[in-house]
Amino acid sequence: MLLTVLYLIAITAEAMTGALSAGRRGMDWFGVALIACITALGGGSVRDMLLGHYPLTWVKHPEYLVLTTFAALVTVFIAPLMRHLRSLFLVLDAMGLVAFTLIGCQIALDMGHGPLIAAVSGVITGVFGGILRDIFCNDVPLIFRRELYASVSFACAWCFLGCAYLGLGNEQSLLISLFGGLLFRLLSIRYHWEMPKFVYRDDPQG
Amino acid sequence: MLLTVLYLIAITAEAMTGALSAGRRGMDWFGVALIACITALGGGSVRDMLLGHYPLTWVKHPEYLVLTTFAALVTVFIAPLMRHLRSLFLVLDAMGLVAFTLIGCQIALDMGHGPLIAAVSGVITGVFGGILRDIFCNDVPLIFRRELYASVSFACAWCFLGCAYLGLGNEQSLLISLFGGLLFRLLSIRYHWEMPKFVYRDDPQG
Amino acid sequence: MLLTVLYLIAITAEAMTGALSAGRRGMDWFGVALIACITALGGGSVRDMLLGHYPLTWVKHPEYLVLTTFAALVTVFIAPLMRHLRSLFLVLDAMGLVAFTLIGCQIALDMGHGPLIAAVSGVITGVFGGILRDIFCNDVPLIFRRELYASVSFACAWCFLGCAYLGLGNEQSLLISLFGGLLFRLLSIRYHWEMPKFVYRDDPQG
């Protein structure tokens, strides 16, 4: 199934970005593996705990833990190469974001939730891995400052829900929102699209 | 029902304080909405996940997500006014703290837990929204340093449990602890009551 | 039962280290008690929420909350003495790590999970209390930088699983991995054993 293949690519790519974040903080190999697993599998775990959807994905498929840990350790060794693979990673990361989002939507719908909760479930699956990575590395989560990322996830979720509402088959809806989301994310990187920011100071003279 | 009305006022007020925190970090609109939802609904979500009380409030009532997101976006536009509304917000926030606490107590009691777990459930509901907000904004949680806040929540929970123990009706117990807690919080702000602090240094010469 | 006794010693010791961390940040007494409870009981709570193992330990045994809170408040008063007890605390902390790990393993096995999830459950129980403590105090989790800590937990879990696989009785397996893990941890402190670190810089000239 297409989504499973995309999911495996996505958790591998996310694990590698997590490992690089851990490397920026000079963590040891255990920390690298843990941050990689959290980045790759954390979004889905948060979704499952919020929705009460047990067992969690990695508990049911412990081989995913092996895959993400392996990807993390590979990253340690090929780190000097990573600088040259930035564009590849941006594409893989975009694919991951969209795949996570659609899987999150699908799971909430399968549990019988309405469209709003399905969209929220998609966004949580898509973005919480990165948020947890940043919290564990003690950064202000990047997602709140970067180009459209969560918004792509949100739009992609609604595109999928809209297609389903219009009576398109599940496979067609997935493909349309997959390519739509991917295109939207890559365009937003290319042209530095950003959401308006809200800057507030307590002291008006500050 | 009184508690529901207070709850709606409370999540709106908490969402607005969350949005201001996000604004202090210069987050984009998505970050503002997310931090607002976490501040308003995070305490209850943590409680429900710890107690295994599914579905979570906002999953059952997705309209609360709409309300908190809407409150966050309104805050972005009326931010310059917020400076003049500080006292109003302190009162709303105090009301929210007390309402959250009593709801948390009530839910734990309804699940059949004893008084200690009910009090803990009340305090978690009351204070974890703010703690999560500060962690997501990468601050040391404010609550650990400010005037009596968690202590008000704790006292309010025990007041409610005490009233129930003395055989007062549910409605009466709620009203007494509601006003007692509100008064306690406002007095503690007014007179800068604080808990003693524990300051520890590893190095005695430090 | 041996594990229960070790568990009680472990949560007391962990609560005291949590209280000292809170004191380093100058938190008030409520913050001290909260950080102590999170340090002592957080690892098990995260494990139970991830595995869907309800009710949580402290919900079933609220007296553990009383014990950890009490240990935290005692710490506030005997803090000046703590400097002289460092070696004692390192031993107690090592015992706690090993006891938490074995309990986490055992619970996952009792739920019918395979060895990989059991080992992960052990490590989560062993190390997440300290990770949460550091996140709540707004530090980069120490565990990612210190001598072998998580690795001891991991090795101890596999030792236990290996003994069980070899057909040893539950009690024997526990004792062997308990002493093995304790010895491994104390040796790693004594000789400053460390895992290799992964240091990554985005900018090669940086």
From TrEMBL, chains A, B, C:
Residues 5-79, 91-163 form the Glycine transporter domain. It holds the Pfam family Gly_transporter. It is a multi-pass membrane protein. InterPro entries: Gly_transporter (IPR005115). Coiled coil: none annotated. The chain crosses the membrane at residues 64-81, 88-109, 115-136, 148-168, 174-193. Its main location: membrane. Keywords: Cell membrane, Membrane, Transmembrane, Transmembrane helix. Signal peptide: none annotated. It is found in: Cell membrane. The keyword Membrane applies. The keyword Cell membrane applies. Belongs to the UPF0126 family. This is Trimeric intracellular cation channel family protein. The lineage of its organism: Bacteria, Pseudomonadati, Pseudomonadota, Gammaproteobacteria, Pseudomonadales.
